[in-house]
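Re: duplicated header lines in exported C-alpha cells

Our pipeline writes sequence and C-alpha cells for each protein into one text file. With two proteins the header for the second block appears twice in some exports. Here is an export where it did not happen, for reference. First protein block:
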Amino acid sequence: METYSLRRVPQLSTFDGAGLPLTLRRWGDADKPLVVMLHGWMDAAATFQFLVDALPDDLFQRYSWLALDWRGFGRSGRSPRSYFFPDYLADLDALLAAYSPSQPVVLLGHSMGGMVAGLYAGVRPERVSQLISLEGFGLPDSDPTQAPKRLQQWLDGLRAPPVHHPMVDQDALVKKLQKQHPRLMADQAAYLAAELGEPTAGGAYALLADPAHRLVNPVLYRLAEAEACWRNTQAPVLWLYGSDRWVFDFLKEDDTAFAWRCRHVPQLQCVEIQDAGHMLHWEQPQHVALALQHFLESSRGG
C-alpha cells in the first residue's frame, strides 16, 4: 500500500524528561521561536505530520516546530509501573527548560495534549505566549461518590494489567484507522499505522503505546481545579473543535454548558472546523493550519 509522502521531513532526537527518555521530532529552523506540539492519548508526535505539511510557508518559516512522544507513547520510554497525569506537566516543564529556557513558547495540543497545555499555561503563565487546543477542553466533571468504585477498578487493574490485542498485520491497523476515521485518505492511514504500531516477535502487529495507559486513573477529575488553572492563564487562547461535535458528546454538554466552561478562560477564541471530527488535524489539516495562522498573527499583533 502506498504511504503518505512527507513534504517536510522532521529531525528525530531524544531528550531526558522528568525521569524517562522522550523522543522528539523537530521541523524548521531551530533558532526560531518555538511551537511545542503535544499529542493526544494513544497517539504520537508523528501524528502532527499532516498539519506541519499543511502550514503556509511563511508561517512554517516563522517558527521552529517541536513535537514529543509523551512518556509511554510512540518511541519514548515507558514507566516501570503506572502513569501519573502530572508527570506530563513535569515532562513539558523539563522540555521548555532545555529548549527555550529564556523565551515563552506557543503550545499546541490535541485532546489529552491540549488538556496538559491548558493546565500548564495556568501553572507557568510566564512560559506560554499563545495557546492552541484542539478538542482538549478538559473532562466531564466527576462525582465524589464515584471514588470507591474508581479505586476498586484501579486496584483490580493492578492485579490484571491491561494488554493490547495484536492485529494480524499492519494492513489490519490501516483498515481499523480508516473505519474509525472515514475522512482519512488511504496513504494517510498507512503512514499513521506505520508510526503508531510495530511488528511483534510473533509476526503480528501491535500498537506502540504502553497498554498500561489503559489502566483506570485512581484520581477523579475535578473540573474546578482545571478551571482555577485556566483562570490563571495570561496567554491568548484558541480552542478548535470539529463540526461533528465529538467533544460536546464527550463532555456531555450542550452549547450553554460549554459556554459556561469557556468563561473560565481569559482571552479565549473558539473556532469550529468544518467537516471534521475529533482528529481534526488529520482530517482537515489545511483548515486547521489556516486557523492557526490567523490566530498566531492576530494575537501577537501582526
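Second protein block, exported in the same file:
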Amino acid sequence: MIGFLSDFGTRDYYVAAVKAVIYGMCPDAEVVDISHEVTPWSIQEACYVLSC
C-alpha cells in the first residue's frame, strides 16, 4: 500500500502520471490518495495532514 500525499493539486495530469509510473512498476500496488491540495512547498502542512 502506498499513501500518496502531494502538492500537485487536481487540475492537471501530474497525479495521474505518478500513479501510471507506480502501476507500471508494480501493477498490484494499492495507491491511497491522502491529499493533493497541500500548499506548495509547505512541509509543516504536509506533516499535519499526514498526522491526522
